[in-house]
Structure to design on (267 residues):
């Protein structure tokens, strides 16, 4: 017989992971894991715990095992077709919430789980929020999250700005595009996440040029463009804005003090 306490002590998983996965399997939150520490686990619970333990030991991220990830105080469904939302992206969202003009139309390119677009709509109901992704599976995940969270966001399928041509008057463009270099050693820890949402050519900078090129060629005239990027890409992204005649962009830091997103505002 194995008790709650024994499993938590004996499991080789990291402490935070085992607590989350134990709650996922048994429904016992961290407080009840302590108050029910002597309870004996059923054979069914032990089998399920062994299953999720092996998945985690194989490197599968916890959110892909549980199917959910917290972002800006809300729970988003996630799966292998979308990136796992990161806390650093909340810094970009906070800036947008505080600085986007009232009532404008804003699009989130490469929306993935929908965490940026849906958080914007839920925190700023005055905004007309649209979101798009090249991946149909990602759009389906984002739509499910929108229904669950009651976020009134419109979704389009397609590459960058092409789905918006002729139909929308976009005043703000937001994107957390692929920005990791193809040879970046950090990719070894991200093998279970969709690589096409992580990796970009041109040293991780291709997506920024593609989006700005489309904005120009498709004659969009946004007042604000905001891009998330890697900790060492702020200067490069500012230079790309300048390549397209967009001077005065500013890079902002994340919670760890690293460059994380760059914003250009029309003057």
């Amino acid at each position: 017989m194995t008790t709650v306490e024994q499993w938590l002590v004996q499991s080789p998983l990291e402490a935070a992971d085992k607590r989350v996965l134990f709650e996922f399997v048994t429904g016992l939150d961290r407080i009840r894991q302590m108050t029910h520490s002597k309870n004996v686990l059923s054979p069914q619970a032990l089998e399920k715990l062994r299953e999720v333990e092996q998945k985690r030991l194989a490197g599968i991220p916890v959110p892909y095992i549980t199917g959910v990830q917290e972002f800006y105080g809300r729970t988003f469904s996630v799966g292998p077709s979308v990136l796992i939302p990161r806390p650093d992206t909340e810094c970009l969202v906070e800036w947008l919430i505080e600085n986007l003009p009232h009532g404008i139309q804003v699009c989130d390119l490469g929306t993935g789980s929908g965490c940026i677009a849906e958080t914007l709509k839920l925190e700023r109901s005055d905004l007309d929020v649209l979101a798009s992704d090249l991946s149909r599976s990602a759009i389906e995940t984002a739509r499910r999250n929108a229904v669950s969270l009651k976020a009134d966001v419109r979704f389009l399928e397609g590459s960058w700005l092409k789905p918006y041509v002729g139909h929308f008057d976009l005043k703000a463009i937001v994107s957390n595009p692929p920005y990791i270099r193809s040879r970046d050693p950090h990719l070894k820890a991200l093998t279970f996440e969709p690589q096409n949402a992580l990796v970009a050519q041109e040293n991780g900078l291709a997506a920024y040029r593609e989006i700005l090129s489309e904005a120009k060629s498709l004659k969009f005239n946004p007042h604000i463009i905001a891009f998330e990027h890697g900790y060492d890409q702020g200067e490069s992204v500012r230079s790309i804005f300048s390549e397209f005649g967009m001077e005065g962009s500013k890079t902002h830091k994340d919670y760890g003090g690293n460059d994380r997103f760059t914003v250009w505002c029309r003057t």
Remarks:
- The longest helix spans residues 43-57.
- Strands lie at 68-71, 74-77, 105-109, 128-133, 154-157, 172-175, 224-228, 250-253, 259-265.
